[in-house]
Specification:
Length: 318
Amino acid sequence: MQPVDAPVRPVPRPDAAVPAVEVTGLRRRYGAFEAVRGISFAVQPGEVFALLGVNGAGKTSALEVLEGLARPDGGTVRILGADPHLERAAVRPHLGVLLQSSGLPGDLSVRETVSTWQRTLTDPRPVDEALGQVGLTDRADVRVRSLSGGERRRLDLALALLGRPRVLVLDEPTTGLDPESRRAVWGLVHEMVDGGTAVVLTTHHLEEAEELADRIAVLRAGLIELSGTPAEIAGTQPSTIRFSLPADAPALPALPGADVVAPGPSVDVHTRALQADLTTLLTWAADHDVELGGLQARAASLEQAFLAVADGTPVPTR
Ligand SMILES: Nc1ncnc2c1ncn2[C@@H]1O[C@H](COP(=O)(O)OP(=O)(O)OP(=O)(O)O)[C@@H](O)[C@H]1O
């Protein structure tokens, strides 16, 4: 077996046609329990890939293998063509990692923490630039233990970005951040991606996945249940037309294939033919001089698709 941290072949240059991240049939076990049960995906330079899933779905267990912190129990992981565990010395200079909890020493100041980290890197950003990026310039001389939770998270992110990584792995990057800081983090991720960095992230904020991710995989019990662009994933669920009817309205027209839920005057039509069914309803309403009160028509959201996977509702294959 190759010793950990042995000098190994360098990773390919940025212009090489190698996926930034390639995960094939990844499995991760804790004793008899298999937390990740054979997942595969690839992420290209300049792409953001989000792993979503309810608590315990296996996201962190998978990310720890990408980060080189754990070995797979099956399958392979390659970061820039190299094994992040066995070829750690080659991968590490190009990999930025934001763990779910970082455990930084509390008695160092923010500046000392960044300077210490900087010494382990080959081409780090200057400390002031790193602190400015995450809005911690004014907190540079404060001890880490005195930072708020959100400030500490931003320091974690500064450390992840410090080495100008080609691959960035972010485990719940904005948990605990206020809405303004969250937007600032999104801006930083966009900047990194524009510079060609590949990003793999997990989040419980679906609007974050919608904002950042080019592609998403939804994990359930260690398996990828659904994957695609945010729009493709949302599109696995029916759209909804919602309105209310006056008491004397005639019977609704037939809407073949739609699910019509009308517990009283309010009506929900769940449909995979939004435009056709909306046209039928509007024509019917005009013909019968009926007003569709509070009419709304909306495509399904990522949240609906996510909840359907979490509930174990079968997702139609496309
Ligand atoms: N060290 C461990 N020993 C035993 N089981 C573990 C260990 N770490 C994680 N697990 C289990 O593996 C499963 C997946 O955990 P993991 O932390 O990967 O989930 P997750 O999707 O990241 O969840 P969360 O959203 O809560 O962070 C869970 O059932 C968890 O209890």
